[in-house]
Predict the 3D structure of the following.
Amino acid sequence: MTREGSTHERWQHKPTLKGDVRIWFYVVDHVVYLEQVHTNHPDETK
């Protein structure tokens, strides 16, 4: 993930037991930035 000229490691969190929900985020210093939130796995919506 690149933001304002700096590259950051992007992370994925699956907060539900089934793992259908995905939250993509990255961290800068002590701040968490949410990049994307999907309520279904992208392959299930095809």
Residues 2-45 form one domain. The beta strands are 2-3, 6-7, 10-13, 22-28, 31-38.
